[in-house]
From TrEMBL:
Lineage of the species this protein comes from: Bacteria, Pseudomonadati, Pseudomonadota, Gammaproteobacteria, Thiotrichales
Gene Ontology MF: a single term: porin activity
Name of this chain's protein: Porin
Quaternary structure and interacting proteins, as annotated: Homotrimer.
Keyword entries, A-Z: Cell outer membrane, Ion transport, Membrane, Porin, Signal, Transmembrane, Transmembrane beta strand, Transport
Species of the source: Thiothrix fructosivorans
Length: 405
């Protein structure tokens, strides 16, 4: 694993993960409805790192759990950290009104790291936590025309798998545990890829009979070449689309189905213009106190973690050939009074340029102490098998809490 790819992976993890905007407090100001909400979460995490098991030198998803991002080295024993989980802390503000028959809104959502940012000579000493304005967008629409969104928000591809992961309230797979960054990974790199935060203009249709569709143009992403260079944007925007179906039978059974796709050209240093493209499907069924969820993705020009390739390159610098990735996640949970118990299994593969398989299993317990405070305990095991190199293994035990407001 080249050092610059590890640095890119660290950068990706620091800005990973998604929190659906939920405003807990609202008030009127003239014709405006204002909202404010957010969350604070913190976890004590112990990650098992055994040098004898890091057969690839820690350069895979399972190995990167043991990275010390302060020093660039890999831990060879258990590491202990106090940091965010899959979500960073957040502060979300919205302003809504109705003018000339149009529903208007503006949203600014800012995310915060609990652990200090990297860069200080002594790790956390005298460092500052990171602040990231991930969502800054406006919307305009009505029941007839649907809704137009413009600004910076999460992408469509892979979004439902992220927010459907039970570890959205916890940690899932650890990342850089010896020098923790902004977040952990949840199932990123295992059962789904990072949806990313992208500048975009999209249109969502009015919801009819439970069906809703979104189409949009997105600021193009850079890909990663095997020579370590970033690609150009290929001279065109990214095209993203999603369709979803929701039904509530009224007898305790709720169903959500969705499918999304993306396509975007990139320009390699040799002048070739291959494409980043992908499709994914997701389903969730809630049956009274039980919930079942699953998703599948496949793509080209991406690795198992990121669109465009982050840990491993998305494209060959010589042939222009694209990496091929695919993966799935399966999850089951059950509520016992105020406690939800769940299990999540996820697997991903790269099958072309760098052949690697990642597996993760997570067991979790989530207890609602109050309506706004959830106590969390999770145990995860990760394994990566890199063809011709070896196997990385790591494990994580995390306990903590999420407070939403």
């Amino acid at each position: 694993m080249h050092k610059n790819l590890i640095v890119l992976a660290v950068s990706a993890a620091l800005v990973s993960n998604v929190l659906p905007t939920a405003q807990a407090a609202s008030w009127k100001a003239g014709d405006w409805d204002l909202g404010l909400g957010g969350n604070v979460n913190t976890y004590y995490t112990v990650t098992t790192c055994d040098a004898d098991k890091l057969g690839t030198g820690g350069g895979t998803m399972a190995g990167l759990a043991c990275l010390d991002s302060d020093t660039g080295t890999f831990a060879d024993a258990n590491t202990h950290s106090v940091s965010n989980g899959l979500l960073p802390a957040s502060l979300n503000f919205s302003a809504k009104t109705k003018q000339e028959g149009y529903d208007l809104s503006g949203n600014v959502n800012v995310y915060y790291g609990v652990a200090s940012s990297q860069g200080g000579a002594n790790g956390d000493a005298l460092d500052f936590s990171s602040v990231d304005a991930r969502q800054v967008y406006m919307t305009v629409g009505n029941e007839k025309m649907g809704t137009v969104k413009a600004g910076r928000d999460f992408g469509l591809f892979g979004f439902d798998a992220v927010i459907g992961d039970m570890s959205l309230q916890g940690t899932g797979a650890s990342f850089a545990s010896a020098g923790p960054g902004h977040t952990t990974l949840g199932g990123l790199g295992y059962g789904y890829v990072y949806t990313d935060r992208l500048a975009q203009i999209n249109w969502t249709s009015p919801k009819k009979n439970g069906v809703e569709a979104t189409l949009g143009v997105f600021n193009p992403l850079d890909g990663q070449e095997s020579n370590g260079k970033s690609t150009g944007d290929g001279g065109q925007p990214g095209l993203h689309g999603k369709i979803s179906y929701d039904v509530d039978n009224g007898n305790g059974v709720k169903t959500h189905l969705s499918a999304s796709a993306l396509n975007q050209k990139v320009k390699l240093s040799n002048g070739q213009k291959p494409s980043i493209q992908g499709t994914d499907v997701f389903a969730r069924v809630d049956i009274n106190k039980a919930s079942l969820a699953g998703g599948y993705f496949q793509g080209e020009g991406m690795d198992t973690l990121g669109i465009g390739g982050i840990v491993f390159p998305g494209f060959s610098s010589t042939t222009g050939e694209a990496e091929k990735a695919k993966g799935y996640m399966a999850q089951a949970s059950y509520k016992l009074n105020k406690t939800k118990l769940g299990v999540n299994y996820a697997q991903s593969k790269q099958t072309n340029l760098t052949k690697v398989k990642n597996d993760k299993v997570t067991l979790g317990a989530y207890h609602s102490l109050t309506d706004n405070l959830t106590l969390v305990g999770e145990v995860s095991q990760q394994k990566s098998e890199l063809d011709g190199k070896g196997t990385d293994k790591s494990g994580t035990v995390a306990v903590g809490a999420m407070f939403s407001f």
